[in-house]
What does this fold into?
Amino acid sequence: MPAIATVIQTTANPIRHKDVPRREVYVRREGEGPNDLAALPNKFPFQYMLLDGILKLGDFGVKTRSGNNVETGLHLLYSSSNTMTPSLESYPQFRDSETYPSPALVGVGEVKKVRTLTDDELEQLLYQFNNSTDLEEIEGRHRYVYPLDYGLFFQGLRKFEKPVDFKASGGPVSEVRVPRSQRKAIGELKEQLQQIGLTLDHIKLFERLKTKAV
It folds into this structure.
């Protein structure tokens, strides 16, 4: 799943959970090619929380996943059309759709390392996800968000001045494809990258990630 975190409605264990092994399937669609760009997806508003400095550990911006099959390097960040409602309840500023549009390509960041998170790190991220420092208060909510087991540690995070409208095709994936055939989106993406001193050549190309059980 591309989600950075998971909503739960029980209080069994807010720090860790057990994920279900699954297969990742990608089917190439018309208009997609081998030189298309890759982007890491997340439900709204998690990418904005990352880019705005809400989700962090030390000097790193951090997003979480159920597996470690993400390569290091510079990635586009894609905010999907799926919404994590409890996060909007915790951070109402993201309800402003003009300032925080989605679905869209919203920025870039360099993944420096991917590793299992410690219990202390998971607890810190739990507070950040839910805009609270009170574990009992979080557990008492009807629903809340909690981090997954692996952390993607980012540096050089840059938010686009103007997010690029884009809707990825397909279901849950570890990477989404940004086809070069979509000239409008690619043209706007070039402009946003140029403003932060980058080009399309800096962005990773889409490659089907290794499938592994988690």
Summary: The domain at 33-202 is CATH 2.30.130.30 (Archaeosine Trna-guanine Transglycosylase; Chain: A, domain 4). The helical segments are 46-51, 85-90, 119-130, 135-139, 183-195.
